[in-house]
Amino acid sequence: xxxxxxxxxIEFLLKxxxxxxxxxxxxxxxxxxxxxxxxxxxxxxxxPEPPHDLSELLxxxxxxxxxxxxxxxxxxxxxxxxxDEEPEQQVDLQIMDYYTGKQDxxxxxxxxxxxxxxxxxxxxxCALSTLQRxxxxxxxxxxxxxxxxxxxxxxxxxxxxKSRKQTTINDYFSRSAALKDG
Length: 182
Fold this sequence. Notes:
By secondary structure, the chain is mainly alpha-helical. Helices cover 55% and strands 0% of the residues. α6 (121-137) runs antiparallel to α7. The N and C termini lie far apart (85 Å).
């Protein structure tokens, strides 16, 4: 086998390295030309372009986005006036105002910020059975009312069946043994 020409350099590349050098199965020559032009431009950029005045473009973008130049002051955003006092100080001031007889005292009602937890499926089925019993006992209830409640009951039971996780036969026997022991 003859040695390679002097102007050709042989390099052994790592596995799958051609995916880095030849992205998306592009040709070797086209990829090499693209990389070499990028390197030439990086080495000799020529005359640098003068910086563009972007202030007009920024004003247009703000106008399109609806941002006005008289936007809220950053300082008032960072420290609003009503957040300067701590809650304990506000309560103390209200107590003093109450005993000194000031009439412009604001009463702060405590709100329960925690939302009620959602009902479980078993609670919903229990409530539905109570509602079904009520509708069946009423003389003026129609068959459509009973059918609608039965349809809801079927959907809830189906949802309960779908929410069950798959178990093994060993789980069944361990549960039945626990029930016998307990």
